[in-house]
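#onboarding

Welcome to the new folks! Below is a worked example of what a typical request in this channel looks like: someone posts a single protein sequence, and someone else replies with the predicted structure as tokens. Don't worry about understanding the tokens yet, we'll cover that in week two.

Example request:
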Amino acid sequence: MEITNNQNKAVNDIVEMVVAVIGNGSREIDTTEAISSTARLAGSFLFRSFGFEINDAKPGTVMLSEVANTKGPQLVNITQAVLQNFGIQIDNSKMSSGNQKQAESNFVDIINKVQNPALEIMKKNDLSYEQMAQSGAIATAFIIQQSGNITPEEGFGTAIYHYIEGTKTYPPEFSSASKKTTNTKIAEKANIPRSGSKPWWKFW
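Example response:
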């Protein structure tokens, strides 16, 4: 699997957007919420790539599918590969259900907050839903790497749990404004501060 330059460009925008939106403008954001929100987003965009046409499904409905079982693990593999590139080795002996922390937030509520600016990032970088999902998996790995208050296994387990949730849950509709937007400056849209090469946020 080859990650394109545009996908790499999208990664920073995804991280900053999630921190800005979920952190409500604060410089600090709960680690579990940051990882779970980005993983849910990645899973949800991968779900959209499946092309299901269902008229009566409500947002939040669990939708099991073979394509999710087949394609979903790619997000896990990307995250693990990126962590390895960061010099982080996941100890499989420490991976257990206890490491899969669940977000306290509601899936539909979080996706409603992040999917519209994420769609703008996708369009800005001319990505498909699947490519955007892959960028989200890279962004998730970056957040895990930046989170000093949890073990890599805890962060990775949390990501896996919410990838599965994202790829198997029917998402809410995009806003009509986001559907029409084709060239939005993400930093201006989300009021994201810029501070050179140093992150303006902190995970806790």
